[in-house]
Amino acid sequence: xxxxxxxxxxxxxxxxxxxxxxxxxxxxxxxxxxxxxxxxxxxxxxxxxxxxxxxxxxxxxxxxxxxxxxxxxxxxxxxxxxxxxxxxxxxxxxxxxxxxxxxxxxxxxxxxxxxxxxxxxxxxxxxxxxxxxxx
Length: 135
Prior knowledge:
Blueprint: H1 3-18, H2 22-26, E1 29-37, E2 40-43, H3 45-58, E3 63-73, E4 76-86, E5 96-107, E6 113-120, H4 122-131
Parallel strand pairs: 1-6
Antiparallel strand pairs: 1-2, 3-4, 4-5, 5-6
């Protein structure tokens, strides 16, 4: 995939996370693709849809911002993001969070993500869920 195509892909991926439509996130993955979030792996579109739904349910006002896209070659990129939202979903704390992270993407021959290895600071995430985001 060209750098222009990867940039467009990342822009659409960001919009999908903001859409409250978890299937739109999963559509960016190959049918057998995987999404790992801090080591917890979701294999296949149904599982990826469920993982996205968990975040969308927890943060009904969730916004994802694309901070950077580092393109390594036609099949590998690193997507840096910021998630902002208020934890008002079922069992939510009511606190606002702002957490940054990144995903290491590997693309398949269909130009969809075959593997995404995502990371964010889970200790800081838990702290913000309990105490809120502090500037």
